[in-house]
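Incident log, structure service

09:12 report received: a user says their structure output differs between two submissions of the same chain.
09:20 pulled the input from the user's history:
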Amino acid sequence: MNNSDLKILIAEDDVLMVKILEFILKKEGYQVTSCKDGLSAIEKIPVLLPDLIITDIMLPFRSGLEIIGYSKETFENIPVIVVSSLGEEEGTVIEAFNLGADDFVSKPFNPNELLLRVKRLFAKKNYSIKPKELNVTISA
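09:34 re-ran on a clean worker, output below:
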């Protein structure tokens, strides 16, 4: 699969951080969509069906943890990279991983390191993004 076929959703409220992320990812040919708050990101996931989500933890309206929870409960196989300065708060990092985050990068970060992590996740990802099937039994 070509990079230009891959869609990345960024949930980040820091304008400078968004510009940095967009620059390095678009330079590699990825399709990038950005949201400045968690609620917008959650609303975009079912419409965009991103191949990867990059999210901060502390966001307006909905947190990055809520984005992780929603994406992992609703869709299969969308990897999530958390990019946050909350790395010192071990409990938050553990909660992010328990919710299904695939990777964590502490701010400030080396752009090349983040790009390497993105490429690594795409290399091992199954590219079928679909809603999870519900196992529901209906009895009369």
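09:41 both user submissions now match this output. Likely a transient worker issue. Closing.
09:42 reviewer note: The chain has a mean pLDDT of 87. Residues 111-124 form the longest helix (14 residues).
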